[in-house]
Amino acid sequence: MLAVVLSLAAAASFALSAMQIASVTGRAGPLQLARWQMGLAFVMTAAASVALGGWRSIDGAGFLYLAGSSAFGIMLATTTYIATIQILGPRLNALVFTLSAPFALALGYLVRGETVTPAQGAGVVLILAGIVVALAARAEDGPGPDRRRLWLGLGLGLVTAMGQAAGSLLARPAMLAGAEPFTAMAIRSGLGALFFVALLALPFARPAARPDHQALKRIGYSALTGIFLGMSLLMAALAHGGVGIVTTLSSTTPILILPMVWFVSGRPPGGMAWAGAALAVAGTAVITLAA
Fold this sequence. Notes:
This protein has helices spanning 2-23, 30-52, 60-88, 90-97, 100-112, 118-136, 147-176, 181-198, 213-240, 243-250, 253-265, 271-289. It is mostly helical. The chain is globular, with a radius of gyration of 18 Å.
C-alpha cells in the first residue's frame, strides 16, 4: 500500500512540475528555463547527497554512465521537454511523454537483447491510440497551436521520449551498482547545469533578460516538485514495491494532470481527453507489467 501511495504522489509531483513550467511560457525560453531549473535542482539534490553521504556510492564507471545519462536525459531531453510543454501545453505533452516506455522497450531490444512480447506490442498500440484520441480531442479545448507548431511540438516530444529512454538505459548500470539516488540526480543535474551555462558563450543562447521574480519562483517550484520531490518519491516507491507496479502508477501523470488543467483553466476536459489519457496509461501498464 505504501508503494502505491508513493508512486501516485510521484506522478502528481511530475504533473505539478509540468504545470509550473507551462505557467512561465512567454517569460522564459527553453534554454533559459532549463538552465535555472537544473541549477536549482543540483543545489537541492547535492545538499541531500552530502547529508546522506551519498558521494561514496559513486565510482569512476558509475560517474561515466551517469554523465552519458545526463547528456541524453538532461541536456537533450530537458530542453525539448520544456519546449514541448510551451508549444503543446502540459496535458498533451504528458501524453506524448508516455512514448518513453515504447522507446525504452525498443532500446532494450536493440542494445541489451531483451525480448519484446506480444502483450508489450499491444501496449505500444494502446499508447499510440491514446495520443491519436487526444489529438482528436483538441477541438474540445478550443483553439490550440496551428498545424505547423503542432507538428513541431510532436517532433520535440518524440525527441524528449527518446532522450529520456536513452538516459534511463545509461543510468541503469550505475543504479544497479548501488549509486545513491540523490547523488545520481545531483551528477546528472549538475552536469546539465554546466552544459546550459556553457551555452551562454553562443549568442543565440543568451537570454534577452533575466526571468522576473515570479517566474523564478515557478521555475524553483518546478525543480522542487518534478526533480527533487518527484524523483525522491519514485525512488522510495521502488524501495517498497515491485518495479512494474511502481512504474505503472508513477506514469499516471496524463490522468492526474487533467484536473489540474481544469482547475487552472476553469474548463473541464472533454470525454475524449480522459479516454486518450486512460489509453496511454493502460499502454504503459501493459508494457511494464508484461516485462
